[in-house]
Inverse folding.
């Protein structure tokens, strides 16, 4: 299933909120992404319709297995790319911004090759270690 970059961003932000707070609220997602509450409402509706999230009566969001899979993939890419760029000497803010731009578009083949290169440069910089 083809998923939009904006949906990937929402799912990634939701995973980050889950890790940070232990729960996911729309208001936290809005703050994380710097968007309005109506934008989050629209996005969560689409994500719910596509089976990536569920919401309870209190408005708490839960990632489904498919939503979690996408979120983890993007979040891992983001962390690995950020670390790789900072290892190259890029300042952390620029590294994060560039990782955000690339994480959606880089092919699996290129990302895997980059991970192998990064592992040779810094053995701590592997996707498995980035998720912890």
């Amino acid at each position: 299933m083809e998923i939009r970059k904006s949906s990937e961003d929402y799912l990634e932000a939701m995973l980050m909120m889950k890790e940070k707070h232990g729960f996911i609220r729309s208001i936290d997602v809005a703050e994380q992404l710097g968007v309005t509450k109506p934008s989050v409402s629209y996005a969560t509706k689409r994500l719910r319709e596509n089976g990536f999230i569920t919401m309870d009566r209190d408005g708490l969001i839960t990632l489904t297995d498919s939503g979690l899979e996408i979120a983890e993939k993007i979040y891992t890419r983001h962390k690995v790319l950020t670390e790789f760029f900072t290892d190259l000497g890029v300042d952390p803010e620029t590294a994060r911004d560039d990782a955000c731009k690339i994480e959606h578009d880089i092919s699996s083949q290129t990302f895997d090759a980059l991970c192998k290169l990064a592992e040779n440069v810094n053995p701590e910089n592997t996707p498995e270690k980035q998720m912890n």
